[in-house]
Write a structure and sequence with these properties.
This protein is of the alpha+beta class and 208 residues long. Helices cover 43% and strands 17% of the residues. The chain is built from six helices and eight strands. The strands form three sheets. The protein has a four-stranded antiparallel beta sheet. Strand 6 and strand 7 form a beta hairpin. Helix 1 runs antiparallel to helix 6. The radius of gyration is 30 Å and the shape is elongated.
């Protein structure tokens, strides 16, 4: 039996492989961004499990800075405004109170208005303190936001009493944990291989 010689023209294969090599940065960015947005959605969804009746502002706290072909790094983070009060739930420490009082104490509702989420509406305290019948101070040893009775008002023949709208209480450490980094890390470990496979298939389809 004579020798059998088989020759293949591999130039097409080489070109295709070369083209795929060029698509690797794109495929990488697709996989990374897919994981990043999955992490964003999972982090936002977890807010409703961690906090009781959170505002929509809180359930949309997470954002993504997308990866590109030139920089295959996506960043999943808290938006600046939400990070102010959510960071202690990740790193530990006292509740964030802002500059409302200057003492670092918590302001909690007593007989004052709250929103549908049980929180003090933004800007309400400033508006209340602009009224002549509302003031911040200490009455009967209680420091808070008080409302004076209407002039001349009487209840059962006695002068009206001041109403405690909101009370200042000493700040304390948060009692919940966000697990932000852990949750994102576990998602990447769990979904990473599938994201890479899907990105490769997408790259092959779009390269045709």
């Amino acid at each position: 039996m004579g020798d059998l010689s088989i020759q293949l023209d591999t130039s097409r294969i080489q070109r295709d492989l070369s083209d795929m090599q060029k698509q690797i940065p794109y495929a990488t960015s697709v996989a990374v961004n897919s994981l990043a947005f999955d992490a964003m959605r999972e982090e936002n969804s977890a807010m409703s499990e961690i906090f009781d009746n959170p505002r929509p502002f809180t359930t949309r706290a997470t954002q993504v800075d997308k990866a590109t072909k030139l920089d295959p790094t996506a960043v999943v983070s808290l938006r600046d405004q939400q990070a102010k009060y959510l960071t202690p739930y990740e790193t530990g420490g006292d509740h964030w109170v802002g500059a409302r009082d200057g003492t670092g104490d918590l302001l909690v509702p007593v007989d004052g208005r709250t929103d549908a989420y049980g929180q003090i509406p933004r800007g309400l305290i400033k508006r209340l303190l602009a009224r002549p019948d509302v003031f911040a101070g200490t009455v009967r040893g209680i420091r808070g936001i008080w409302q004076r009775p209407t002039r001349g008002s009487r209840r059962n023949g006695a002068p009206g009493k001041m109403k405690l709208l909101y009370m200042f209480r000493p700040n304390k450490a948060v009692d919940k944990h966000l697990n932000f980094e852990q949750r994102a890390t576990e998602l990447v470990q769990r979904e990473g291989p599938k994201a890479i496979e899907a990105a490769i298939l997408k790259t092959i389809r779009t390269a045709r």
